[in-house]
Amino acid sequence: MSNNVYITKVSAFMPGNPIDNDTMESVLGFVGNKPSRSRHIVLRNNGIKYRHYALDPETGEATYSSAQLAAEAIKGLVDEHFSLDDMQSLAAGAAIPDQIIPGHAVMVHGELKNEPCEIVSTSGSCMVGMTAMKYAYLSILSGTTNNAVAAASETVSSVLHARNFQNESDARVAELELRPEIAFEKDFLRWMLSDGAGAVLLENKPRADGISLRIDWIDMYSFANELDTCMYSGAEKLTDGSLKGWSQMNPADWLAYSVFCIKQDVRHLNERVVKYTLSEPLRRTVEKRNLSADSIDWFLPHISSEYFRMKMSAGLDDINFSIDQGRWFTNLTTKGNTGAVSIYVMLEELVNSGKLKKDQSLLCYIPESARFSGAFMHLTVV
């Protein structure tokens, strides 16, 4: 396989107007008609100032499906060099797709209505954008296609809306009062996650005009063999660390326990996320790729919260791969934590910032806390 693969265009689509910290709870709704007790604490730690929701701020109804968001981002790739009907392969991922079946990518294809093409749906959480990217990359690298589109989208706000928690609030008042950590596992993420979509066009040659990014390699690692689940939806975590999935539960419990809301074991997260999504996997990549920190011009980490910034920096120091903050690029504070979409949103802003120079190298890092995985992508500006 001798083909090179290039990102020739990047697009991001953020629904609606930016929502600030003082407005967000009125959009997401008040659980039990009471303001959240944890919102201010979580926001102070995560550093997010603005985010976007695919919700009508007055009614709370969805303004876009996840497939529609992805389609809007993909439409942003169209120009005089590329039309939707030119697309040979489409790989799309969403942590929470609009339905269980059909797959997410076919729904995106249905929204686009372009000519028949190869489609692949990826599943997971924060890494689904990168698994879609890797499939598209390998499709071209293998010579199977000359171009491919990778996309990720999130409409997590529909899951985070207060209406999804009301039955649990009513049914479990006493238990939630005695064990407030049960509520915090779910309330925590209401102030962390938000919506958006991103897409990239990959081709087997760079554009003659403007900037293209050569994909040098993509490495991914899972540590599920060592660690149990940290973030989950559609299940309850049992005392032995295993999950009981929704299909094994009484349907009445789906609402009583907010089974389809996203839960995060925050203690598990804090103790292990840096080691098992950054330090350990990057150490393997450094050895595999003979990678030097000095060679990195831009570091694009998916930071879920500013709380983890210095912890990540220390994690890099621990493996002698220090990258000073001047080389970091994130837009968490202005675009929010968009999960799997975040790397696309960062790339879109950086590519259009005018800051990139020919021959610079980019290291993209995407952690997934669901069961502790990490992805790294190395790019070169051409």
Automatic annotation (TrEMBL):
Keywords: Acyltransferase, Transferase
Main EC class the enzyme belongs to: transferase
Domain Beta-ketoacyl-[acyl-carrier-protein] synthase III C-terminal per the UniProt entry, residue ranges: 287-363
GO biological process per UniProt: secondary metabolite biosynthetic process
Enzyme Commission identifier(s): 2.3.1.41
GO molecular-function terms, A-Z: 3-oxoacyl-[acyl-carrier-protein] synthase activity
Protein's UniProt name: 3-oxoacyl-ACP synthase
